[in-house]
């Protein structure tokens, strides 16, 4: 992904986090309270939003035309989808099978952060 794509992805992910947070606080409140999963849903929104901001920061340091941050971006995006997505589903359905995917999302997020650190530490210029 190039600078522009990373920034657009981060912005869309951030907007989605705000929307899902508001939806959870209002339209889904009764379901979340009934399931006893309000905290789970809030955790999903929080990680979702943190990583949207991370993508915006990654995009802001990327050089135009560079694909240096493609892998970190991919892993962070996949991590949000799996980590937060599984928590959203778990909170809404109380089906524990969804929560079993959450650690996989966590590993994807960690991988993204490690790859980001390696790319930032790298002194070589990449296209």
Sketch the major β-sheet. none
The low-confidence parts are: none
Q: State the end-to-end CA separation.
A: 11 Å
What proportion strand?
A: under 5%
Mean of all residue-level pLDDT scores: 95
Radius of gyration: 16 Å
Give the topology string: H per helix, E per strand. HHHHHH
Q: Please count the helical segments.
A: 6
The gist of it:
The chain has 127 residues and is mostly helical. Helices cover 80% and strands 0% of the residues.
Please give the structural blueprint.
Blueprint: H1 3-25, H2 29-35, H3 38-61, H4 70-93, H5 96-99, H6 102-121
What does this structure look like?
- This protein is mostly helical.
- It has one domain (3-121).
- Helix content is 80%, strand content 0%.
- The chain contains 6 helices and no strands.
- It has helices at 3-25, 29-35, 38-61, 70-93, 96-99, 102-121.
- The longest helix is centred in the middle third of the chain and has 24 residues, at 38-61.
- The radius of gyration is 16 Å and the shape is elongated.
- 34% of the residues are buried.
- The mean pLDDT is 95.
Features:
single chain, 127 residues, mainly alpha, 6 helices, 80% helix, 0% strand, elongated
């Amino acid at each position: 992904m190039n600078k522009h794509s990373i920034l657009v992805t981060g912005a869309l992910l951030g907007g989605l986090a705000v929307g899902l947070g508001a939806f959870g606080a209002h339209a889904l409140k009764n379901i979340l309270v009934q399931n006893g999963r309000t905290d789970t849903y809030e955790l999903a929104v929080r990680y979702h939003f943190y990583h949207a901001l991370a993508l915006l920061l990654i995009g802001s340091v990327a050089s135009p035309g560079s694909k240096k941050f493609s892998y970190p971006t991919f892993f962070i995006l996949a991590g949000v989808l799996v980590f937060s997505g599984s928590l959203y589903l778990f909170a809404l359905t109380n089906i524990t099978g969804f929560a079993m995917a959450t650690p996989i999302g966590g590993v994807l997020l960690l991988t993204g952060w490690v790859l980001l650190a390696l790319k930032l530490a790298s002194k070589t210029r990449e296209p």
